[in-house]
Design brief:
The chain has three domains: about 190 residues, Leucine-rich repeat, LRR (right-handed beta-alpha superhelix) (Alpha-Beta Horseshoe); about 90 residues, Phosphorylase Kinase, domain 1 (2-Layer Sandwich), CATH 3.30.200.20; about 140 residues, Orthogonal Bundle (Transferase(Phosphotransferase), domain 1). Helix content is about 30%, strand content about 20%. It is built from ten helices and 26 strands. The strands form six sheets. Strands 2-3-5-7-9-11-13-14 form an eight-stranded mixed beta sheet, with no helix packed on it. The longest helix is centred in the middle third of the chain and has 32 residues. About 35% of the residues are buried. About 10% of the residues have low confidence.
């Protein structure tokens, strides 16, 4: 009896030891499904330049990985790895990124079939897999992406018919399937912009109907039909009178509808990127269009007491929307001026292209005949320039956190956007801080688009004195190095607690920060 108890005890100890060893091994740990999905994606791709090297499955949080953006709540919402020389195939595990809103893998050499699992990304709004080597048919599951606004599959080797179910994608505003080997019939797409040129079996000459169409926004359609008479008219005169009356009413409806259509067309918001190489329509479907009166009430008629900042192009006001949301409203000084219009267009374009937790996002805009306004989230801690002078002083840990956040935002603009974006005005006043002192790069009014194959863009010198790179001043050629110089000045300001143009205690020392550091 004692021997059996001893053997039973040894068996229990052994089982417990094996269980502890097994549970401590990586294979039995609880793995974040998003981490596992990203690791699977990495394994299926070939990465000759090692740009995915930081994607390590031993980490529980993928939000610090390159090309990955997470929401404030944690889930991955954006995967952007454009023009990185990637090849291989796209893993079906992409479906496990259930909160994904943006997927940009264009300008690589990824091949194989489009995984049907893409249709499981129900929150996806932007999908760009263009300029790759995808083959096979477009999966019918694509039509399940009911939230999708922007879809580009052009310049691949896709074949077969276009799924007819794609005609039911009601939120789709931009669709490009050009330069593939697709065949008909062509669904009646609801998107405003559709391009299927370069498919020989559909658009042999490019002149066929529907190959490249842009539909005007329709505000009014008269689908009403005159009710049929239940019986014959007793009198021909009465019939003529009724017909004439109905004709007049229909004519009035047509005139009224035409006037509404003309007015809407005049105010229709379609912008084009400044660089002609990327002259494509930017969809504003995700942005809210505010009424001027709504912003007037939110800012108490743009009261001077609500001013939280001033810049070269306008004044920023703190506002409270009716739903309680606190916002920052940027009102351009002169909405009709050429500079104001250009700055408004540029800022909307850049923020539409760039989505990252360390970049200022745009809630919406307001555009009238005389006003141009942009609405942003309110940054409770103001700008870095403000916090450097405020009390209490920023701790070293906070300063380091600010520097890292600003660096991540600029890295995204320079390396992960396609085309990449040169900010051209990196300074402490344009680095904003949210409730948790997370750095957010803002004010894209002077930004420029730049192809990854180009080394610089030559423009008139713009920026803030003390933050402009010397070579930009002398040559007018700006590149990502221009932003790096401005970021260097920002680091010096964070370290010294001084501002570049207010350095030192005497007037002779002002603007001498670089000379002082070098000395």
């Amino acid at each position: 009896m004692g021997r059996k108890r001893e053997e039973g005890g040894l068996w229990c100890v052994g089982f417990l030891s094996l269980w502890i060893l097994a549970s401590s091994s990586p294979a039995y740990r609880n793995v974040n499904p998003e981490v596992q999905a990203l690791v699977d994606i990495k394994e299926k791709l070939q990465d000759p330049h090692g740009v995915l090297g930081k994607w390590d499955g031993t980490f529980a949080d993928p939000c610090t990985w390159t090309f990955v953006t997470c929401s404030s709540n944690g889930p991955v919402i954006s995967l952007v790895s454009s023009s990185q020389g990637l090849s291989g195939t796209l893993s079906p595990s992409i479906a496990n990124l259930t909160n994904l809103q943006t997927l940009l893998l264009q300008n690589n050499r990824i091949s194989g079939k489009l995984p049907s699992e893409l249709g499981e990304l129900t929150k996806l709004q932007t999908l760009d897999l263009s300029h790759n080597l995808y083959s096979g048919e477009i999966p019918a599951s694509i039509a399940e992406l009911k939230s999708l606004h922007y879809l580009r599959l052009n310049n691949n080797s896709l074949s077969g018919t276009i799924p007819l179910s794609m005609a039911s994608m009601t939120n789709l505003t931009f669709l490009d399937l050009s330069y593939n080997n697709l065949s008909g019939p062509v669904p009646k797409f609801l998107a405003k912009t559709v391009n299927i040129m370069g498919n020989p079996m559909i658009c042999a000459t490019g002149k066929e109907k529907g190959c490249n169409e842009k539909k005007p926004m329709t505000l009014y359609s008269d689908n009403q039909q005159g009710s049929q008479s239940s019986g014959r008219s007793k009198s021909q005169k009465i019939a003529v009178a009724i017909g004439s009356s109905l004709g007049c009413i229909c004519l009035l409806f047509v005139i009224f509808g035409f006037l509404l259509w003309r007015r809407q067309r005049h105010n229709q918001q379609i912008f084009y990127e400044i660089n002609e190489q990327y002259r494509q329509e930017v969809s504003l479907g995700n942005l809210r269009r505010f009424q001027f009166r709504e912003l007037q009430v939110a800012t108490r008629n743009f009261s001077s007491k609500n001013i939280i900042g001033k810049g070269g192009f306008g004044i920023v006001y703190k506002g409270h929307l009716q739903d309680g949301t606190i916002v920052a409203v940027k009102r351009l000084k002169d909405g009709n001026a050429v500079g104001g219009e250009t700055q408004f267009q540029t800022e909307v374009e850049m923020i539409s292209l760039a989505v990252h937790r360390n970049l200022l996002r745009l809630y919406g805009f307001c555009m009238t005949a005389t006003e141009r306004l942009l609405v942003y989230p309110y940054m409770s801690n103001g700008s870095v320039a403000f916090r450097l002078k405020a009390k209490p002083a920023l701790t070293w840990g906070t300063r380091k956190h600010i520097a890292m956040g600003a660096a991540r935002g600029l890295l995204y603009l320079h390396e992960q956007c396609d085309p990449k974006i040169i900010h051209r005005d990196v300074k402490a006043a344009n680095i904003l801080l949210d409730d948790y002192c997370e750095a957010v790069v803002g004010d894209f009014g002077l930004a420029k688009l730049l192809d990854h194959t180009d080394s610089h863009v030559t423009t008139a010198v713009r920026g803030t004195v003390g933050h402009i790179a010397p070579e930009y001043l002398s040559t007018g050629q700006s590149s990502e190095k221009t932003d790096v110089f401005g970021f260097g000045i920002l680091l010096l300001e964070l370290i010294t607690g001084q501002r570049a143009l207010e350095f030192g205690k005497t007037a002779s020392q002002k603007g001498a920060m670089l000379d002082w550091i070098a000395g």
